[in-house]
């Protein structure tokens, strides 16, 4: 059965892999440190020409700051390859011509269009505002939500539902608890913009111009990354780095298509198989289409 | 059927009423104004010698400040007649010899014993902290909760679950949303200390030294006052003042024993019947017990 187990473990590589979605925190880096082997693996991935997008729930920093931080860690990536909730939200607001009230981190303001002066907001957007989560700011957002509810068209968006994250001086509350607070007070349910919202994964897929069954997501969050990606038809690979917990290997709801030690191992397995599957795919391409 | 309806409406007066629990906000007063007729009704109640307790979820002010405010509005009441979540919590902490971390309004600190210096808290208490609900204060409370959870004995108390209240400059978030935020982040459920917790009603009953079926609660909150009181065997009377909404008259879960226009009407009906029931009760008392 050892062979069988090994075969099953590799089953996720049978279908072609033509693109990748990569989480950043916990996959490429932890805080300000690159995860061992991931810089080299990232270079191998780029050399392979397999297209990829970085898919992050980072909402404290604008993409440019994230790109610069990744560059300092030797991950060189173009800005348009980074998919994050704030620019996704800004694009949606632009598309739906909405004027948001923003309860977000001041640093990320630059991702949003400046609303015209004197125009009342018609939706509320909550991000990881940190110190900007004051009682006054929470009250302001709440009063706007209740006014929109009374008008009958309440739109309430959250850039994430994370509970907390680790900082050098302890655990810090993420935006999930503050979203929960405003939901409790207003009786409204916020629409999630980041992972694991299907719309967010689909926007990254659209950018790759690939169908979901040809793309693999690699992440350290069993629910947000792996479960979310599987929910829209991607394969989901869990790494044993970042926020990974041993109990994730027997998660009651989400079964990853593969569990690997780290990003480097995932890339090795993909590149090894991909040569085969790319070739067979090229062969298929030569078959005349009906 | 008019007679029958009238009779049914008066059914709550058939059993003896030997004590009362009264909500303050929305029953005796709205904000800084006495509700019409309530000062006189309160005097009639005191003259009747029917014992009563004030049962409030006020957690922003200490009882002494509340007593002084009531006194300015011509409601003269002794401090030991006021039951509020903070002193109930303080009594419980004293009884269980616990050291709390307090996330409460600075004004209400005086209700709690000062914890000894350098001793780690073994529970977290959240009140209506208002401006003191900073990101830093929320983080501190959260980190203590998680530490207690890891130790295996997490105790988390909330002085209320109110969503919001009205102030002259708009709606203000109550402590419920911030309780919800810490519950979401920690995965813990806070124990409610104020209304409608059965323990809170029972402490007021204990003070009256009366069984629940001889006591009536009068309040403006269909769930917190009326439903809560009924849950421990009291009769619950709803007033059409304060936060009362017409839809409360057909509430899907809570059926008040009576709905009256205001506190004054409730007291009139009780005093009118009480003379009868007190007499009949006195008569019953003369029947030799087996």
Automatic annotation (TrEMBL), chains A, B:
Quote the EC number.
3.6.1.1
- Signal sequence span is none
Q: Is the keyword GTP-binding assigned to this protein?
A: no
What are the record's GO terms for cellular component? cytosol; nucleus
**What is the predominant subcellular site recorded for this chain?**
cytoplasm
| InterPro entries listed in its UniProt record | HAD-SF_hydro_IIA (IPR006357), LHPP/HDHD2 (IPR006355)
* An annotated Gene Ontology molecular function: metal ion binding
| Record bears the keyword Hydrolase | yes
What are the subcellular locations of this protein? Cytoplasm; Nucleus
Q: Which UniProt keywords apply?
A: Cytoplasm, Hydrolase, Magnesium, Metal-binding, Nucleus
Q: Name one Pfam family in it.
A: Hydrolase_6
The reaction(s) catalysed by this protein are:
diphosphate + H2O = 2 phosphate + H(+)
Cofactor(s) needed, names only, are: Mg(2+)
Q: What does this protein do?
A: Phosphatase that hydrolyzes imidodiphosphate, 3-phosphohistidine and 6-phospholysine. Has broad substrate specificity and can also hydrolyze inorganic diphosphate, but with lower efficiency.
| Listed name of the protein | Phospholysine phosphohistidine inorganic pyrophosphate phosphatase
What lineage does the source organism belong to?
A: Eukaryota, Metazoa, Ecdysozoa, Arthropoda, Hexapoda
């Amino acid at each position: 059965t050892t062979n069988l187990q090994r075969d099953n473990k590799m089953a996720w590589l049978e279908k072609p892999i033509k693109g990748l979605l990569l989480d950043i925190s916990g996959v490429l880096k932890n805080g300000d440190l690159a995860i061992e082997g991931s810089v080299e693996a990232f270079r191998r991935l780029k050399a392979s020409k397999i297209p990829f997008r970085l898919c992050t729930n980072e909402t404290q920093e604008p993409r440019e700051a994230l790109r610069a931080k990744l560059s300092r860690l030797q991950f060189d990536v173009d800005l348009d390859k980074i998919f994050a909730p704030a620019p996704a939200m800004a694009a949606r607001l632009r598309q739906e011509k909405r004027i948001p009230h923003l309860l977000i981190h001041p640093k990320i303001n630059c991702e949003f269009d400046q609303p015209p002066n004197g125009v009342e907001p018609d939706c509320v957007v909550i991000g990881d505002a940190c110190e900007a989560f004051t009682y006054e700011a929470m009250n302001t957002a709440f009063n706007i939500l209740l006014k929109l509810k009374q008008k009958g068209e309440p739109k309430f968006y959250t850039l994430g539902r994370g509970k907390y994250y680790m900082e050098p001086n302890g655990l810090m509350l993420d935006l999930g608890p503050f979203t929960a607070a405003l939901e409790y007070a207003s009786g409204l349910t916020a629409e999630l913009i980041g992972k694991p919202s299907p719309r967010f994964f689909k926007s990254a897929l659209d950018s790759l111009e690939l169908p979901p069954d040809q793309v693999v997501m690699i992440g350290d969050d069993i629910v947000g990354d792996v479960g979310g990606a599987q929910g829209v038809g991607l394969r989901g690979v869990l790494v044993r780095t970042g926020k990974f917990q041993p109990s994730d290997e027997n998660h009651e709801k989400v079964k990853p298509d593969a569990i690997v030690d780290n990003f480097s191992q995932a890339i090795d397995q993909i590149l090894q198989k991909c040569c085969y599957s790319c070739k067979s795919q090229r062969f298929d391409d030569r078959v005349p289409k009906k």
